[in-house]
Q: What sequence folds into this?
């Protein structure tokens, strides 16, 4: 991951600001924050005890499983023998600490063994076969999912990291324990980051904030999420963290009496209403306070809701009863109530949130939830291991997580580029969400900024691919409209519609982006194959041959020569201009004539590319494999030529196009003759220049004349000459052919205010 710009570890003001004077005490504190403590000299006699971990495990693992944990520990201890952390501690202390964090979540034996062994393959070269032999295939696969790809050479460090994240996320999609162990690993690394250099601390902190903290949030591990954010903030901006921490300590002392009074009054009010409840005062994390200061451009003195309160009640109905008691006790702030019980967050989180005006005018934030909701809110998917005994508080977290993990696999199947995969996933990790409804009142959670296209792909891939329009709350809206919570979205489809490449500029979800790219590639591939087949058939006809004459053995020899795996792949290469159809046809002719290998090689050289010309007919149905040049806008009736640029497909130019003439001089063998089919159909773009007298309503009357002759106006541009007597209007129209264009020109010239109207020609 690249370090984000402006994340200087000192937290000092940018250079454009005046220097800040600091006291000697502040300078000493800053120096201590920026410089790592000198590592203690390694104590080679030190041993890391397993007793603490075994004490945690003895509460829920049988004795035979504890022996497996001991075996994994001994193996890891031997593998890491003589290896030390930057702090000077024996390296084995880190895997043991990771396993202890996993034990807090009560993960199973295999996950705990993988936690102890997770660095043996990466750091000590232990092979997967050795792990399988000693601990079984499941543990080996978990360790493999956690292992970075250090042995593979990539073009740069960012690509290496992206590939590592991709592998980790895919392993996570197959087994959720991989990411739980990885998060425990990252949490312990962040807790012990002080021994690193300031530069390395900032880099690791930025990586944690970008990837690992959002993953923890997405999985509902809110405790881990908050701690990773605070630790990342501490190491990315140590001075800001230190100053804010001191300010919070002062505020905590000043407001302790107020918090105690509110807790006492609220506890009595709930008891009087007959609602058994547990109340806790909670302090917001430093990072959340810092983000709020940034977002609202306020100093700490103006951030009042530093403290919040949590109310835990037995039943769901009690949540709403408690809400009524609180609203009767303190006035609620308008627009500050959210019901995440009725509509849970993406990660399964459920609570009622309300902000009230306290006795001194200070905002008081309350979260109201049941005990089971509280467990899931703090532990997320880890609640699956924490509470198995017939309870199902984690059902929502499990369902939403499973759906997200499946989407990772779907995205990976359609996107093999590691960096692009990670960027796609990062969008889905964004914690903000909007909640929208289908016409049948099904609720969908989408990232903030999602559009109707994202909604369509979230419902079903086919719905997204066939989208042509959308209605939000009953009104037609542009497809790039941002959705808001509570919107009812209806998608209008057409059976033969397909994704528009422009959608990629505004879709928000990784699923939509991946599906659009996949469909566009598949569509282009199919159209390129069809064009390539036509080009090869035309070239073979010059040799008085037919594709149907080739048997399987001849195809096999041809594909071996071309390096393609299938016939369709060869056709696609021809359609995209990567191969010249005439050379492939000549190769086929020579194979059929059974000439010797030497003759084949002689005829396959560069000189073989001078092909005789025969025309290829265009009928307008070629799709994305045929492009009509923007420089000259050829339309049916024009004399045309085709340029086969490598990887670009076939580009159609007018024969008198100056740009085409220059290309012909550089690549004379990349051109083929074209003609228009008698059954050509479809609109074609053409440029039209109209010089008019400057006056009121001129553009409207021209547009009316054009539309009356069944031509569509795709684009219009005019000179910025408001005070001039005449003005030039430039249109891009969609017409059927030259005759249709001539009809439009006659209709335009019939107006008295038009002094000149002509087709725009390519400039030399």
A:
């Amino acid at each position: 991951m690249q370090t984000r710009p402006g994340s200087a570890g000192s937290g000092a003001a940018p250079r454009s600001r005046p220097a800040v004077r600091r006291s000697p005490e502040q300078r000493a504190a800053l120096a201590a924050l920026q410089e790592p403590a000198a590592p203690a000299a390694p104590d080679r006699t030190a041993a890391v005890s397993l007793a603490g971990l075994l004490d945690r495990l003895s509460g829920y693992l049988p004795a035979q499983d504890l022996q497996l944990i001991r075996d994994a520990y001994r193996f890891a201890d031997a593998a890491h023998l003589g290896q030390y952390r930057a702090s000077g501690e024996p390296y084995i202390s880190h895997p043991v600490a990771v396993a202890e964090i996993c034990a807090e979540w009560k993960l199973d034996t295999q996950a705990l063994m993988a936690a102890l062994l997770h660095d043996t393959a990466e750091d000590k070269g232990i092979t997967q076969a050795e792990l399988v032999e000693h601990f079984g295939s499941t543990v080996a696969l978990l360790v493999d999912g956690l292992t970075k790809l250090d042995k593979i050479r990539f073009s740069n460090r960012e690509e290496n990291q992206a590939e590592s994240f991709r592998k980790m996320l895919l392993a996570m999609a197959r087994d959720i324990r991989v990411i739980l162990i990885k998060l425990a690993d990252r949490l312990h690394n962040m807790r012990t980051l002080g021994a690193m250099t300031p530069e390395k601390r900032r880099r690791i902190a930025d990586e944690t904030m970008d990837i690992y903290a959002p993953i923890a949030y997405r999985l509902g591990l809110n405790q881990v999420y908050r701690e990773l954010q605070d630790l990342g903030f501490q190491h990315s901006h140590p001075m800001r963290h230190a100053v804010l921490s001191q300010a919070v300590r002062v505020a905590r002392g000043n407001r302790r009496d107020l918090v105690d009074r509110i807790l006492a009054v609220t506890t009595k009010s709930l008891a009087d209403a007959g609602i058994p409840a547990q109340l806790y005062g909670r302090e917001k994390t430093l990072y959340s306070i810092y983000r709020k200061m940034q977002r609202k451009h306020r100093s700490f003195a103006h951030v009042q809701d530093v403290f919040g309160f949590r109310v835990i009640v037995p039943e769901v109905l009690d949540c709403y009863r408690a809400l009524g008691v609180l609203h009767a006790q303190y006035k609620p702030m308008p627009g500050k109530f959210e019901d995440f019980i009725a509509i849970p967050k993406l990660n399964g989180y459920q609570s009622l949130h309300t902000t009230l005006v306290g006795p001194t005018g200070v905002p008081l934030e309350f979260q109201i939830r049941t005990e089971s909701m509280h467990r899931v809110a703090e532990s997320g998917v880890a609640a699956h291991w924490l509470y198995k005994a017939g309870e199902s508080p984690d059902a929502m977290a499990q369902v939403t997580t499973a759906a997200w993990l499946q989407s990772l696999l779907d995205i990976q199947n359609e996107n093999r580029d590691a960096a692009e995969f990670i960027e796609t996933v990062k969008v889905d990790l964004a914690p903000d969400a909007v909640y929208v409804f289908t016409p049948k009142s099904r609720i969908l959670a989408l990232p903030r900024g999602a559009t109707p296209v994202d909604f369509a792909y979230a419902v079903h891939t086919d719905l997204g691919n066939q989208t042509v329009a959308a209605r939000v709350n009953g009104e037609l809206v542009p497809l790039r409209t941002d959705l808001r919570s509570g919107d009812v979205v209806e998608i209008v489809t057409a059976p033969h519609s397909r994704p528009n490449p422009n959608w990629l500029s505004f879709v928000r979800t990784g699923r939509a982006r991946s599906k659009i790219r996949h469909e566009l590639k598949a569509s282009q591939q199919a159209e390129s194959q069809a064009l390539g087949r036509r080009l090869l058939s035309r070239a073979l006809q010059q040799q008085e041959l037919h594709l149907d004459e080739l048997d399987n053995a001849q195809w096999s020899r041809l594909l071996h020569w071309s390096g393609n795996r299938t016939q369709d792949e060869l056709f696609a290469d021809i359609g995209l201009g990567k191969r010249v159809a005439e050379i492939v046809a000549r190769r086929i002719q020579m194979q059929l004539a059974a000439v010797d290998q030497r003759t084949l090689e002689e005829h396959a050289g560069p000189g073989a590319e001078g092909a005789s010309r025969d025309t290829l007919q265009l009928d307008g149905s070629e799709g994305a494999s045929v492009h009509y040049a923007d420089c000259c806008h050829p339309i049916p009736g024009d004399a045309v030529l085709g340029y086969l640029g490598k990887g670009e497909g076939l580009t159609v130019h007018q024969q008198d196009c100056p740009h085409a003439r220059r290309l012909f001089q550089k690549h004379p063998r990349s051109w083929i003759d074209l003609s228009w089919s008698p059954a050509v159909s479809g609109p074609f773009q053409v440029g039209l220049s109209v010089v008019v007298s400057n006056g009121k309503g001129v553009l409207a009357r021209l547009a009316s004349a054009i539309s009356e002759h069944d031509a569509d106006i795709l684009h219009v541009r005019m000179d910025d000459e408001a005070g001039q007597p005449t003005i030039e209007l430039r249109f891009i129209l969609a017409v059927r052919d030259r005759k249709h264009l001539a009809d439009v020109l006659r209709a335009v010239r019939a107006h008295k205010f038009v002094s000149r109207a002509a087709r725009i020609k390519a400039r030399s």
Observations:
- The first strand starts at residue 278 and ends at 283.
- Residues 51-235 form a domain with the Hypothetical protein af1432 fold (CATH 1.10.3210.10).
- The CA atoms of residues 344 and 350 lie 5 Å apart.
- The chain has 29 helices and 19 strands.
